[in-house]
Design brief:
The protein has 366 residues and is an alpha/beta fold. The chain is built from 13 helices and twelve strands.
């Protein structure tokens, strides 16, 4: 008899990538550029750095367990009450908390596939059954996802933009979905890349679905455009009963002091947000051109800060060849796409570095 729960039998521990300096040392490279994790390349906002410096002398104290100031600021920003906001160590943590709070063994979740892997893994950890619905032309197929819903479905995940494809689900599709989805489940609309998008058909799920009475939890994060991935801070906006259910199982101090003050200080710089959105769009267009120049067609239209490129039956050799040039990208076998790579938009210099690396690899292959 195993000491560990049977639900864990088929899972493997997360294997972190090696630090950039270790890759550089092992391969004897002058420079390494990491474009693998959809991080923002510009770092924290100046106000966030100042806030962290001011709070550093208080790190002998535990953080505010309720993230009072941050949660209230987010509630005010979205026009909801603080009882409708939950913070966590990244949106990823909230997905885990939600899974523990809602899923019993044998319950089901529905997600497009490939999509964000935590939806599936966190369900498996508690003995639930993920229903993976294939994408249609690199987009979520909401009709097929609705058809996959059964009596034991508790959660449906809609990532828009979808990670790893970068494609979005527009307003008309989501409106139709919410008209048809059964009332017994909760829909999680994951908008981790919300701030990158300037498309008229892209809905604000808090305004357009939560506030109109839909049973939905909307996820956002400070890990991407705000440049705080290393601090791990995200949040969810949902009905009070959903927020309370998550709060019952979350750890009291899971969002550290530095993360709270940095996130709070990042909320009021629309000019910097617009600058980063513009630079990301320009960099994305540059990377699209780079991939097409070498015969690789990215999934699209992509609207976030990354691209997916189908490269053949097995993306491993191209990943390894790029790595030897110092360009770290993400192979997508774990996401259910073994023939694809995901490339994050970097700074103009980093995008140029990737272009040179890909050109070298393709020339060597010829």
């Amino acid at each position: 008899m195993s000491f560990f729960r049977p639900a864990l039998d088929g899972l493997v521990p997360y294997e972190p990538g090696k630090p950039e300096e270790e890759v550089q040392r092992e391969l004897g490279l002058e420079r390494v550029v990491k474009l693998a994790s959809n991080e923002g390349p510009w770092g924290p906002f100046p106000a966030a750095l100042e806030a962290m410096e001011r709070s550093a002398g208080l790190l002998n104290r535990y953080p505010d367990g309720g993230a009072f100031h941050l949660a209230n600021a987010l509630a005010e920003r979205h026009g909801v009450t603080s009882a409708e906001v939950i913070t966590g160590a990244g949106a990823d943590a909230i997905i885990g908390h939600l899974s523990v709070a809602t899923l019993d063994p044998g319950d089901e979740i529905v997600t497009g596939w490939p999509s964000f892997i935590s939806y599936v893994l966190d369900a498996l950890k508690v003995g639930a059954a993920p229903q993976r619905v294939p994408l249609r032309d690199h987009h979520l197929d909401l009709d097929a996802m609705l058809a996959a819903i059964g009596p034991r479905t508790k959660l449906v995940y809609i990532a828009t933009p979808n990670n790893p494809t970068g494609t979005m689900t527009g307003r008309k599709e989501l409106d139709d979905y919410f008209e048809r989805v059964p009332a017994h489940l909760l829909t999680v609309v994951d908008q981790a890349y919300f701030e990158y998008i300037d498309e008229p058909d892209y809905p604000d799920a808090v305004e357009e679905y939560l506030k109109t009475g839909r049973r939905v939890l909307v996820l956002r994060t400070f890990s991407k455009i705000y440049g705080l991935a290393g601090l791990r801070v995200g949040y969810g906006v949902g009905a009070p009963d959903v927020i309370q259910g998550i709060a019952k199982i979350r750890r009291a101090f899971d969002v550290n002091t530095q993360a709270q003050v940095a996130a709070l200080a990042s909320l009021d710089d629309p000019a910097e947000l617009e600058r980063r959105r513009r630079l990301t769009a320009e960099g994305r267009a540059t990377l699209v051109g780079t991939l097409r120049e070498h015969g690789l067609e990215p999934a699209g239209p992509a609207v976030a800060n990354f691209l997916l490129a189908d490269v053949g039956d097995d993306a491993g050799p191209l990943f390894e060849a790029l790595l030897r040039q110092g360009a770290i990208v993400r192979p997508l076998t774990a996401f259910g796409a073994p023939g694809a790579l995901r490339i994050t938009v970097g700074t103009p210099e980093e995008n140029a570095f990737f272009a040179d690396a890909l050109a070298c690899v393709r020339a060597a292959a010829r």
